[in-house]
């Protein structure tokens, strides 16, 4: 299996009125060709900033450190112009809000064609042909008509299909999907997930799927990274994660999913909230909310331990980690 | 206190406030600052260029331009205060009542009248009103004040519309607080910020409008020194005495800039919709 | 279509109120209008003739409706001093003012667009600060003083451009254009400042929107993102401002035309004011307010062209 994306010691900081805050703090992961990697965590854990760092689309007060190797090349070394030929061409992105992520004043067709004309150097007629076939591929009825329509004439689910068609435009090697179904109705969510799986099977593209929803992870992903407060706390394949979750945070997330035959009267929740980037605890960042926290957890930050292909950042597994 | 600190950090706003403070000082101490009587004519010194004796030179009647500019500050500050005062006296109560009681009067009489008033080019309206009432400072103020009133009606009404639906207003009404008390004790104080911003910016326009009317000969009448009428008199002297034009105009520019800077600064602090 | 029809219907009450206000103006003259117009030494015959001509003998409501009836037929009355129909006077004066308006807008757009876009894109840099401060300065310069300064520099000191000498365009295009440069710059500079500030803040709102990020994620460079995606969305409030600017501009031209001796519409008003020709003043301000209403109507309809959502009746701000 070839690795198409390797992220090494990614650190993303922002200059703010309260000084410099570090939102992503030393994240490592990689994505193989044809693989779907899930990145899970609550809002504020740094998942979206990680994806925007890969696209180099941070606001001007953001600064990226570390290495992001795409096809073996560190994209942090690319000039802005070289980066533009990567965006939308080799790495495409699908955003959370289909309602606001499309330009309200341009037709659907024009928005899909834009990247195709730019990167694939097709002429207008060929680009139109491709845009219509993409609209058909994402399951849009009346593709020719919708090509001429404006986003406000479409429903949320349809707009997200347009976003997917847009992302597929230049056959990217990697699609980053940032909470692609969060803003949609439950029934539409399933359709969009099915569509994304179909796209992946047909084109062999890799997907980096960012979500807070473990249900989506179970359905879509091959491997999973759990992020907490700007760090990776657990990484493993999807089956292991659900059979044998290790980090107390992951276990907490799983216990807060309602189940069909649930007999519990209340769902278990994780008490407290994610710490603010400029008020990080001294030891383990999860310790203040952890039911199993020990003395050492409040003192010293744990390392990301290697446990038989299962990575976990927790003092509970320190001994197990040493033995291996 | 926090607002004051925030304002001090807004450099341009502070510069604006300082300019206006300077204007007030000059206006109050005009007698002490001006070296000559602004209306004293001196036929030996007609149209002399700026010198140590006459800082800004003299005009065609031999009057000291610097002294006239200094005394012009009085007219200018009066123009700003009176015209905007009149506009607020008309606009704020109408806006309050109209927005609070809504209904036919608000929708079809007040707001459509505001639309109609704002269709008249401001200076043309002021020109027409002061033409009808007769030339003179007081009438010019009335004309400008009437011209500004619609903007105050609009902004006050807009504030009342949002505030009247707030929970604490609803709560006050539900326990039987009288309308007048709600309007003046609860709504007006909370609607004040945008009105103050609008007033500051309107003062800038008021000074320009007064100068414009005086320049056209409809505002302040000679020999009272006003920057606008000084420009009117200097107009025929453009080629022989450019300094007679430069200094009064510079004074208008500086003071208007002061009010604009202050208004802009206040907007950045007081108006949550404007980002830093 | 529904949007356009509704908008058209809304202008009717406004125009009606405009006519009432204009009509009332002549009745705001303290005392007897005919006496004020003619002065104390007028003969009783002349006085009575003017009262009859102005319809002052009739009840005020009758006066209004007979005046309105004539106005609707294009009859704005006869100038008291020139004894020519007011509509003829206005038609003679409009071309120069229209030319001046177009020139002013050209100057304003040529300065405001590059400056506004640059300031928004390079937000927080010296380019931004310089142009924002310059715009505040530009808004604070009285345009008649700027006009005089331009005359001193370009016409008196250097004789590069004429300070007067307007001729109709068709009579002598070169001379006409040369005479128009300074007036257009004098009024256009101030308007450009207003427009630039508006464009900058509107663009800043738009560039932080999701769809702009989408455009960047497609690999568009900054210029194409701004010009192709952000600018058009930022235009909606800017177009409104330009519509509202027309009213201020027509007022400002009163003074510009006086300074540069351009026989335009604004100068007609000033001249009529000093000649106490109230019938002409009345006709001219009615025409100016109607022009403003029409321009604003056109601007609102232009929205529908810019923003497809308005046609669907959803409104510009979603």
CATH topology of the largest domain in chain A: Rossmann fold
> What's the gyration radius of chain A in Å?
21 Å
Helix content of chain C: over 70%
Strand content of chain A: 15-25%
Subunit organisation of the chains: heterotrimer
End-to-end span of chain A in angstroms? 25 Å
Short structural summary:
The complex is a heterotrimer of chains A (324), B (276) and C (318). Chain A is of the alpha/beta class. Chain A is built from twelve helices and twelve strands.
What does this structure look like?
- The complex is a heterotrimer of chains A (324), B (276) and C (318).
- By secondary structure, chain A is of the alpha/beta class.
- Chain A has 2 domains: 193 residues, Rossmann fold, CATH 3.40.50.300; 66 residues, no CATH class.
- In chain A, the strands form 2 sheets. In chain A, strands 6-7-8-3-9-10-12-11 form an 8-stranded mixed beta sheet, sandwiched between helices. Chain A has a 4-stranded antiparallel beta sheet with strand order 2-1-4-5.
- In chain A, helix 3 packs across helix 4 and helix 3 packs parallel to helix 6.
- The longest helix of chain A is centred in the middle third of the chain and has 18 residues.
- Chain B has a single domain, classed as Orthogonal Bundle (MetI-like fold), CATH 1.10.3720.10.
- The longest helix of chain B is centred in the last third of the chain and has 38 residues.
- With 276 residues, chain B is mostly helical.
- The two termini of chain B are 19 Å apart.
- Chain B has 11 helices and no strands.
- The model of chain B has no long low-confidence stretch (mean pLDDT 87).
- The longest helix of chain C has 38 residues.
- Helix content of chain C is 77%, strand content 0%.
- The C terminus of chain C is likely disordered.
- The chains are: A alpha/beta (324), B mainly alpha (276), C mainly alpha (318).
